[in-house]
Amino acid sequence: MSEQEEQYTVRAKGITKNFQLFSTQAEKLKSIFKGNTDAADFWALRGINFDIEPGDVVGIVGTNGSGKSTLLNILSGVIPQTSGTLEINGSIGVVAINEGLNWDLTGRENIRLKQLMMGMTNKEIDAAMPDIIEFSELGEFIDQPVKDYSSGMRSKLGFSIVTHNDPDILIVDEALSVGDQNFSKKALGKIREFIAQGKTIFFVSHDLEQVREFTNKVMWIQYGEMRDFGATKKVADEYQAFTAKLDQMSEEERTAFVNTEKNQQQLFTIEQLQDQFAIQKVPEDEVREVTKLRSFEGFNSFSLWVSLLLIIGLMVLVIMRGYGR
Ligand SMILES: Nc1ncnc2c1ncn2[C@@H]1O[C@H](COP(=O)(O)OP(=O)(O)OP(=O)(O)O)[C@@H](O)[C@H]1O
């Protein structure tokens, strides 16, 4: 890696995410075996580029359905991007309302499971357990199954586990919006500690005042496109002006605006991304790398495995017939 690239904790180039809108379960199943379907394409992300430096605290804003959670899910590896490249230098911890907890296990069992997945030994987990339970404020509910928790309780447990793991990059997706005020205050205190340690933080919140207070950069995502990315004050002001304009629209105007944007998300093609790169004069081989479609790679390897299994099956049949004579 070159010296210039080392200064980034996260670098995203041309990230797209395509969801296929299946009308029935049968259509979805058919797509797994046949690969191609007639389902409509929907591009939740349409070419996202950014560089995040160590110590950046990035607020991600955008109206409902703009693609914030989709981007965070790609960053944290929960879902793959359809195309584009992502470089991540460091461990990632995610706190989100419904992130990563097993609902059938108790809070205590979830703590153990998550820590084991992080590579901790049972002895280390036993030592860390009291601190995590105390921070979560769950008291005796820690031995109840998570499915019986409220969303605020799940958020408290998730936040306590993840921050205790001390990740290099912390992703907080709306998790603080469901906890009670006292816990939110304590959680924000923990985030302040992380900021002081120079960690990289992604912070999704619909509370623009919170975003202004905690972040140094803001990423504004609008229906899958990056509208702006830069210093908090500038981008937060722009976003606030946009939402004020949306609020002033009549219901018909707003519906027409949203429909036009959503329509563009269905009509998007990878070629548009290539046009965008041409304007930015991105080298040819880099464009090829960035626009590689993962879903087709997945399909190719799937077909390869099916073919291999068929060949092995045929060979076994031939051998067995030979023995039968
Ligand atoms: N699995 C999926 N299949 C089809 N469409 C999806 C899927 N997941 C998300 N989407 C669509 O992608 C778009 C972006 O969704 P996402 O949840 O990322 O938005 P968001 O900005 O986080 O919204 P909010 O502020 O409401 O949480 C939405 O239009 C959503 O309907």
From TrEMBL:
SMART domains: AAA (SM00382). InterPro entries: AAA+_ATPase (IPR003593), ABC_transporter-like_ATP-bd (IPR003439), ABC_transporter-like_CS (IPR017871), ABC_transpr_TagH-like (IPR015860), Bact_Polysacc_Export_ATP-bd (IPR050683), P-loop_NTPase (IPR027417). The keyword Zinc-finger does not apply. Residues 27-248 form the ABC transporter domain. Signal peptide: none annotated. It comes from the Bacteria. One of its GO terms (cellular component) is membrane. Keywords: ATP-binding, Membrane, Nucleotide-binding, Transmembrane, Transmembrane helix, Transport. One of its GO terms (molecular function) is ATP hydrolysis activity. The chain crosses the membrane at residues 302-320. It holds the Pfam family ABC_tran. CDD domains: ABC_KpsT_Wzt. Belongs to the ABC transporter superfamily. PANTHER family: TEICHOIC ACIDS EXPORT ATP-BINDING PROTEIN TAGH. This is ABC transporter domain-containing protein.
